Amino acid sequence: MYPLHLTVNGTAHDVEVDPRRTLLDLVRETLNLKGPKKGCDHGQCGACTMIVNGRRINSCLSLALTHEGDEVTTIEGLADGKELHPLQQAFVEKDAFQCGFCTSGQLCSAAALIDEIKEGLPSVVTGDDPVELSPEEVRERMSGNLCRCGAYNNIVEAIRSVAGHQR
After folding, report:
1. Quick one: pLDDT at residue 47?
2. What pTM did the predictor assign?
3. Other CB atoms closer than 10 Å to residue 136's CB: what's the count?
4. 10, 27, 62, 116: which one has the fewest Cβ atoms less than 10 Å from its Cβ?
5. Is the pLDDT of residue 96 over 50?
């Protein structure tokens, strides 16, 4: 066991961690935050997506010990108390979820996506000149997050509505 200090959703944690433990398992099992889901456990579905130091990651692939001193945001940290994050509200309004299993990862990924756009980070769709958050752009940037229920069109519209780009 090794000591680890990290901040999750604004709360500092000092824990003892097995070096083989993933960030996902630490957050779910030790910190008891059940929002991030263990879907495929291979980094292919995105249900475990968290935001670490402003960047989205697949937490099932990331060893907890590599996050010494990091700032981690899970779905539980997006809302401001009882006030939903604008993306959470948009997902409700646009009916952008069905079973809800992937929703926490979708929302964390979408929050990071909007920040990436604000920073001007390019994607395959935009190349070096990200100008507009088109549906194609959102689909490309969200391609690491799968939805078995097929709510993709509504997810795209929810993201675009928060980013200020509606069709």
Report:
1. 97
2. 0.92
3. 14
4. 10
5. yes
